[in-house]
Amino acid sequence: MTGPDRSRSVDETTLRYLARVFGHRPEVRQTSPFPTNKLEGLVVTLDAEYYPADVDGVSLELRAYTNGDFHVSYHETRAGDRRGCRWDRHDQPHNARDHYHPFPDAGTAAAVDRSYATDLTRVVERTVLPWVDDRVGELWESTTD
After folding, report:
1. Its pTM surpasses 0.85
2. What is the rounded distance in angstroms from the CA atom of residue 18 to the CA atom of residue 11?
3. Beta pairing partners, 112
4. Contacts of 24 (CB under 8 A, 6+ apart)
5. Separation between Cα atoms, residue 44 and residue 25, nearest integer Å
6. Beta bridge partners of 100
């Protein structure tokens, strides 16, 4: 076979749907489907007012494909230091198809196998957003120590 793998085309329908859903959430400042620097994805910028003052910015980047593959990345910036984690579904040699690259550096060596819901919207609802909520709580708790 020559040329690009047509089975892994961008699932624009799912990403546009998620952009609309995120757009109605109060903690979301902006949704950017298919920005020029991330043509295959959706960037969701969270409102920094939901975070302690030392957090400069938080975003989610989502990519979805028609073959069921996806990548959801969480990025957090504090004093110029960017940290993150990633939920993935794709074939590769380091882990099972469903896997998670943990916070704070999303390193491949630390990736762990996971089992996610079939539909990306359910993964966001049941896995990603609860993790983000827990992270916000951890950040606020760390400011009272």
Report:
1. yes
2. 11
3. 100
4. none
5. 11
6. 87, 112
